[in-house]
Amino acid sequence: MLGWTRAMAIDQIAPGEGAILQVRGVAVALFHGNDGWRALSAACPHAGSLISEFLTDSGTVMCPSHGWEFRADDGQCTTLRAQRLRVYATRVENGFVYVKVRPVIAVFLTIFGGASADPPRIR
Ligand code: FES
To answer: What contacts 97, CB < 8 A, 6 or more positions away?
Structure first.
């Protein structure tokens, strides 16, 4: 399926926690929320820092550089309403969580090979 990448086994991330992954050349923050999986762009729109890999009790994620906060369910920034993180689709299948990232380069790699099935973890 075009654009879907197996991110990791579902038991690798405890509920409330996440990981920052390099998925098809895109920095993705993958979270195991209490009500399912969420995948967001990991690059903060303020100055490009990587956001945290931990969810708050209210279901938000912070950027450690200057404290901007984002809702994990839709990427909306609660600090500055005009900003948001991109949201990527997720699905769980056979004990693994998959993320759908489709930058132009990902489509090329899917067609011509070279895309890794196991994306490296940034942190
Ligand atoms: S870089 Fe994220 S709040 Fe400044």
So the answer is: 6, 7, 8, 9, 10, 30, 37, 90, 91
Residue with the bigger pLDDT between 105 and 9: it is 9
Residue identifier of the C-alpha nearest atom 4 of ligand 1:
66
Torsion from C-alpha of 86, 65, 48, 101, nearest 10 degrees: -30
Between the CA of 2 and the centroid of ligand 1 the distance, in Å, is 32
2: confidence class by pLDDT, cuts 50, 70, 90: confident
pLDDT score, position 115: 46
Distance 96 CA to ligand 1 centre (A): 31
CA of 57 to the centre of ligand 1 (A): 20
In order of their start, the domains of the chain are: 4-112 (2.102.10.10)
